[in-house]
Amino acid sequence: MRPEAKAGILDIAPYVPGASKAAGHAKPIKLSANENPLGCSEKARAAYLASADELHLYPDARTSRLRAAIAAKYGLEPERLLFGAGSDELFSIACMAYLGAGDNMVQPQYGFAAWAIAAHAAGGAVKSAPERNYTVDVDAILATVDRRTRIVFIANPANPTGTWLPFGEIERLHAALPGNVLLVLDGAYSECAVGLRGYSAGLEWARDKENVLVTRTFSKMYGLASLRIGWGYAPARVVEALDRIRLPFSISRGGEAAAVAALEDEAFLQRSVDALTSGRIKLREGLAALGARTLPSAANFITATFDNTGLPAEQIAAELARGGILVRHLRNYGMPDWLRISVGSETELKALLERLGLIVEAAKARV
Question: Which domain-ending residue is among 264, 293, 320?
Fold first, then answer.
């Protein structure tokens, strides 16, 4: 006799994070996890360190300071905000609250892996809608929704492709969904898409919607990935349901202090956006010069394939790792010919492109 996990749990493919170690390299160049190459705001760092005297105290269960700061910055009702250990916790509790045996959630073909894990753990099924040119296809999503669909997940910009939808397409999707389906708009990369014509994160639009949960994170452009701070905006009934099963104290005191300071440091955020914008262009152009095909990206990474050169993505990732440079091979996303490469610093991108150039030249010499 021994405890057995409930049916289906051991069938779930575990989340695979971006590589963080390269044999023989104590500090590899890590372009595998979409982290901010500028680090975080010095004000956020100082606020985090200042909280060290409070390590013996439980966090504020209501995340009151951060709640007030986000509400003020975005003009949102504070009581409609949710907080979790990264966006991932919000995805998990949404599935726990709205999915049961026989229900399903619908996602794009190349959906973020944490969504499916959350759905399966809750006992629901996962239905994936085909994408068009690695971009979410609203009509395909709608065709995949059936009477047992309870949640639709969309990331805009998307991970792992980086592609994005004009907000009119999100509006069209929502208008055609049944009212009992929760639309989750994952905005982890929203800050990366600032300034794109036709783009919106959807916060203001969601104000009068009864079935929309918009999620955001401090992990990407704010550079607080290790602190795991996610938040969401939803109608009162959704917030009430999710708050009942949300883990208590999932936002630490230090994390909350850092996030409040990061939110106030608009100058650091702007520097991060500027660095991303210029770095994304340099990376795309550098990859194209080496013969790669790239997907149009509104995120802090470029998704690329060297299939035109005959170089397998897995081989490229392995050879880069031997040189101390880590990228994300997208085999586990059903994209075995593709690599996801984070926009790093100028120095990091220079090293990456030089190493890729050597790999491509070596491959040509072997032909």
Answer: 264
Where residue 310 falls among pLDDT bands split at 50, 70, 90?
confident
| Model pLDDT for residues 4-32, shown as the tens digit of each residue | 998 889 999 999 889 899 999 999 999 99
Give the pLDDT confidence of 51-71 residue by residue, as tens digits.
Answer: 999 999 999 999 999 999 999
Q: What is the pLDDT of residue 367?
A: 64
Give how many domains the chain has, as a whole number: 2
Distance CA 43, CA 256 (A): 13
Assess whether 63 and 208 both reside in one domain.
Answer: yes
Instruction: Report helix, strand or coil for 332.
Output: helix
- Mean pLDDT over the full length of the chain: 96
Q: What own/partner pairs with CB < 8 Å and gap ≥ 24 does 128-136 have?
A: 131/161, 133/163, 134/110, 134/161, 134/163, 134/295, 134/303, 135/161, 135/163, 135/164, 135/165, 136/108, 136/163, 136/165, 136/169
Same domain, 52 and 165: yes
Give yes or no: residues 79 and 191 share one domain: yes
Contact between 79 and 239 under an 8 Å Cβ cutoff? The reply is yes
Q: In terms of residue numbers, what domain contains 281?
A: 17-39+267-366
Residue 1 maps to a domain: no
Cα separation values, 67 from 71, 103, 189, 232, 277, Å: 6, 32, 20, 10, 29
Contact 115, 162 (CB under 8 A): no
Q: Are 288 and 359 in a shared domain? A: yes
Structure tokens at 3: 């405890």
Q: Is 271 left (phi over 0), alpha (psi -120 to 50) or beta?
A: alpha
pLDDT of residue 339: 98
Q: How far apart are CA 335 and CA 305, in angstroms?
A: 10
Both 318 and 351 in one domain: the answer is yes
pLDDT score for 153:
98
Say whether both 224 and 343 belong to one domain.
no
pLDDT digits (tens, 9 = 90+) for 247-300: 999 999 999 999 999 999 999 999 999 999 999 999 999 999 999 999 999 999
Tokens of 317: 């990732």
Instruction: For residue 127, give the H/E element and its range.
Output: strand 125-129
* Confidence (pTM): 0.96
46 vs 50: CA distance, rounded Å: 6
308: domain CATH number is 3.90.1150.10
